[in-house]
Structures are given as structure tokens and as C-alpha cells.
Design brief:
By secondary structure, the chain is mainly beta. It is 5% helix and 36% strand.
Length: 185
Amino acid sequence: MHLRIVGLVAALMGVLAIVEVRPVPSRARAAAPPSPASLAGPALRVLPIAGLTAKDLHDNFSEHRGIARHEAIDIMEPRGTPVHAVVDGVIAKLFLSRAGGNTIYLFDSGPVYSYYYAHLDHYADGLHEGLRVSAGDVIGYVGSTGNASASAPHLHFTIFELEPEKRWWKGTPVNPYPILLKMVP
């Protein structure tokens, strides 16, 4: 809330001023209430890799890699293991990055969340930006592209809560580990 001072504000040579202070409504729009989907959190329908168990998952979301937090989990699997869409949605971006190698940004149907897959060996045949996919569809294959060690193929997987602008490269990281852990035997 801002305040507006109405009246003469001066105290010159012993003259007192009469001052009235009134609240002024902010011109900024109030933040929109959170959507029901964001309150519930990400709702994965399938695992990114079929057959995972609790022993396959390790919470390394908060670990530091160099100067930055990891903000993802790494799921170690053999090169070429199929990687699945975890939700119904659309392929928002296919991107070759120095760090992530072959990457996929999958937006859920909202879109409220983006699911990020990195270090992929290659994409599934026919995968392209704008493609609608269903949970369980194979979208890529585990690899070690980007800055991943060639001797340690894995899926680098994370979730971002999208900002109102819905940009594939911006969002608030959400730790996928507790979500995945609830889904495995």
C-alpha cells in the first residue's frame, strides 16, 4: 500500500502544517491466485523410465555441481534405455545444449509444469516441437551427451513450475525425487 500526503507539508519558521495521510490503492495488479493444478503439485502419470525401483533413485537435487545447484536427479541406466513422457502434453522444445546435450522440454496440458530430460542419446523417431504426446510414449533414449561422462549414461530429469509467460527456459525447479519415490515399488 502506498501513502499520499494531502495538504501543506511545511514547518517553516514555526508554522505548523496540517497533514492528512490517506492510503492509495496500488496500481500494480494483484498476483493471480495459484491455479488448482499448481497447488496440487506435478501429477506424473508414468515413470520416465519403466521398471524403476526405489534403489534406482537418489536425491541429488540439492547437490552442487561446480557453483550451481544440480536441481535435478540423475537416473543411471544403460545407454539406449527408452525414456517416456511422464504426462500428456506437448513437446515445447528440443534443444542441443553444451551442458545437457540432447534435451527435451515437455509441457503438461495446463501448461503449468515443464518436464526436462537431458543427456539423451537421441530422440524417438518423429519427435518434433509442437508434437502432442501421451503419458508413456517413448520420447527419447538414455545417453551421455553434453557434459555427462561417456562412461556414465543417465537421464537427467527435473520439473519446472512455469512462470506466467510459459517460457521453456524459465521456471521454478521442483524436486522430482519425492514424486518419483511415491510411484515406485
